[in-house]
Specification:
Helix content is 48%, strand content 18%. The protein is of the alpha+beta class. Strand 9 and strand 10 form a beta hairpin. Strands 5, 6, 7, 8, 9, 10 and 11 form a seven-stranded mixed β-sheet that branches. A two-stranded antiparallel ribbon has the order 1-2. It has a two-stranded antiparallel sheet with strand order 3-4. The longest helix is centred in the middle third of the chain and has 45 residues.
Length: 409
């Protein structure tokens, strides 16, 4: 089989094609190739239309030999022989008394009617060629749409697989679309290898159950599907540590590291509970400062300073309920008798402090401690008296209850 150009329309076709799919002209057994210039032309022509090479009778052989071609060759040879016959000279004219074919001979008319004119045969061939061309176009369009649909399906499957972190989805794509574009296959394979490595690394981290290993895993695999689980486990590890230490500092550290952690609310509740039971160093300093200042102002006979440490209304002051600041000032002047030259009060610092939550981070303190009163008389003799003091500080840091009992010598 060879590819030639249709001598009618120039369309490239096979020399075995019965008709040209473009113009419908008969091809197989109907064309020859010029041995001089290579031009393909119809075998019914006696010379090449391009170089005008006259083809010998022996060379008038069609390019494709088949039964039809052989018959054509024999017909052409007969025609050539008839051409070479000498014409008869002075042949007397015959009077044509013959009637038209079929005039009085139905049988001849019937035979003649069965003969197909050459133009009709050529038209039929053109129609057949056109039909073949249309069929070829329809088949081509069908193939185009089929492969287009298949390509769209592959592209959709590729995009879905690339967006997935499921190894089974990726492997299914590789198995189903083994003839996909190489770039797609390489991308899917790389994605699958990365997921497998991520899963193996995650398995190792889970076995270690280490906070540092979990943090390293997140740093190395920021887009891992296990990232949320890793963050959860780190949160749980830090929370467990804070619970075991059971200190305000440890709980506050957990909140600082996990501001949106799963146990922030629990941590705050524990901090409140600890704060309501545990006296922090700064709270002990506050208690010492208030009562130290109160006793000092009592010894210095400083009314203004003394009243600044007490609430305007005390629930109890040395046995008097609903006492006022004036009652406190009256007590101060009462203890300064005429034989007292000077007086000093000092806390021994043995504070026992209990706290009570009275609001949002608001506490009330119950305080018990020992104090020494030093009295210097007019004769410069000093006398020391020891007292046991119980008192209450409200949430504003003022004394709201005060009692003291003299201890035996």
């Amino acid at each position: 089989m060879a590819i030639i150009k249709c001598p009618e329309c120039g369309h490239e076709i096979s020399d075995k094609a019965p008709f040209c799919p473009s113009c419908g002209v008969a091809i197989a057994g109907k064309v020859v190739e010029c041995p001089k210039c290579g031009k393909v032309y119809f075998s019914e022509l006696s010379e090449c239309p391009q170089c005008h090479y006259k083809r010998p009778v022996a060379d008038k052989t069609p390019i494709v030999e088949n039964n039809n071609a052989v018959n054509t060759q024999e017909t052409e040879k007969t025609t050539e022989v008839e051409i070479m016959k000498p014409k008869e000279v002075n042949e007397p004219k015959k009077v044509n008394n013959e009637q038209p074919v079929g005039a009085n001979n139905p049988e001849e008319a019937s035979d003649e009617s069965l003969k197909t004119p050459r133009n009709s045969s050529r038209n039929n061939k053109i129609i057949i060629g056109a039909v073949v061309a249309i069929v070829a176009v329809v088949i081509g369009i069908g193939c185009y749409f089929y492969y287009s649909i298949q390509s769209d399906k592959e592209l959709q499957a590729y995009n879905y697989a690339m967006a997935s972190n499921d190894p089974q989805v990726l492997q299914s794509y590789l198995d189903q679309y083994s003839d996909a574009p190489e770039a797609h296959l390489d991308s899917i394979q790389s994605h699958l290898d990365l997921i497998k490595k991520t899963q193996q690394d995650w398995t190792n981290v889970m076995i270690s159950n280490s906070k540092s290993a979990l943090e390293d895993y997140i740093a190395q695999h920021p887009d891992s599907p296990y990232k949320a689980i890793a963050i959860h486990k780190i949160d749980s590890i830090d929370w467990q540590t804070a619970q075991q230490q059971n200190t305000v500092e440890a709980l506050e550290l957990y909140i600082e590291q996990h501001s949106d952690g799963e146990h922030v609310e629990d941590a705050n509740q524990m901090i409140n509970s600890l704060n309501s039971k545990t006296i922090q160093p700064e709270e002990r300093l506050m208690v010492n400062s208030i009562y130290g200042g109160f006793l000092k102002s009592l010894g210095d006979k400083d009314e203004e300073a003394l009243t600044s440490f007490v609430n305007p209304l005390l629930t109890n002051f040395l046995g008097k309920t609903n006492a006022t600041r004036s009652d406190v000032v009256t007590f101060m002047h009462k203890i300064y008798k005429s034989d007292v030259k000077s007086m000093a009060w000092k806390s021994l610092g043995d504070y026992t402090i209990n706290k009570k939550n009275v609001g949002d981070n608001q506490y009330e303190y119950s305080v018990a401690f020992s104090a020494i009163q030093t009295i210097v008389g007019q004769d410069d003799n000093a006398t020391e008296v020891r007292y046991k003091i119980t008192s209450t500080l409200n949430n504003e840091g003022r004394i709201s209850d005060f009692n003291m009992v003299r201890l035996a010598e």
